[in-house]
Amino acid sequence: MWAFFQKYSSPKNFYLLAGRLIPWLGWSCLLFMLAGLYYGLFVAPPDYQQGQSYRIMFIHVPAAWMSMFIYMVMAIAGGIGLIWRIKLAEVIAASSAPLGASFTFLALVTGALWGKPMWGTWWVWDARLTSELILLFLYLGVIALNSAIEDKRTASRASAVLALVGVVNIPIIHYSVIWWNTLHQGPTITKLDAPSIHISMLIPLLLMAVAFKLYYGLTLLMRARCEILDRERNTSWIRELVLADSG
């Protein structure tokens, strides 16, 4: 296993591996997305309290999960790059930031659309919403640092420090509905006992969660390949790759 990680931590080997994985991830993402949307929109019954409006949950909840998941991937990759100076880790961190920001923005927007008919307002400054908004600002800060600093290695180190400091916000988001009195309901999926959501609603929710993760994997590999080409453009293997493609 360690030999595998050593081999594919090389930008060249990772670039070639990612090219082979992208089609598989793309088709898998499409299948899970279509299945999740079909079951969520046409098979799952209306909620006895919220009616049809609850169906936005199948986008909102996976997007919120992904906003935290991607941040942890970005922070861990940034930490690895900061400590061991592994180029691929820096690439993964830099490529993850815009994707994480997109999922966080999607979670906030869909949450507002869902909250208006349920709570009577688009926004409230409760703990869950505020900490999720802070997460978006952390992502934007990482993106800004990566864009503002010309030297890629220096930018990666600076953004890694910010990402690691911001990790403290992740448990706040997750446990905010337990620690404070918020408008959000308590956990329904990640409970120690059985989930309190009906199986007909749980299945499409999990299908969409898998689809979102596959989409993240797909777009991450695509962005990482572009980032590698940019960082390694003066290396011999990139020149050989260009010559092989042109020939």
Question: What does the secondary structure layout of this molecule look like, with pairings?
Answer:
Blueprint: H1 2-8, H2 11-43, H3 57-84, H4 87-119, H5 127-148, H6 152-166, H7 169-179, H8 199-231, H9 236-246
Helix pairs in contact: 2-8, 3-4, 3-6, 3-8, 4-5, 4-6, 4-8, 5-6, 5-7
Structural write-up:
The structure is a single chain. With 247 residues, the chain is mainly α. The protein has nine helices and no strands. It has helices at 2-8, 11-43, 57-84, 87-119, 127-148, 152-166, 169-179, 199-231, 236-246. It is globular. The two termini are 36 Å apart. The relative contact order is 0.16. The model has no long low-confidence stretch (mean pLDDT 92).
Briefly characterize the structure.
This protein is mostly helical and 247 residues long. Helix content is 78%, strand content 0%.
Using brief descriptors, characterize the structure shown.
78% helix, mainly alpha, 9 helices, 247 residues, 0% strand
The low-pLDDT segments are none
Task: Provide the succession of SSEs.
Answer: HHHHHHHHH
Estimate the strand proportion. under 5%
How large is the radius of gyration?
Answer: 20 Å
Number of helices: 9
Classification by helices and strands: mainly alpha
Shape: globular
Q: First CA to last CA: what distance? A: 36 Å
Number of strands: 0
Biggest sheet, open or closed, and with what strands and sense?
Answer: none
- Residue share in helices? over 70%
The pLDDT mean sits at 92
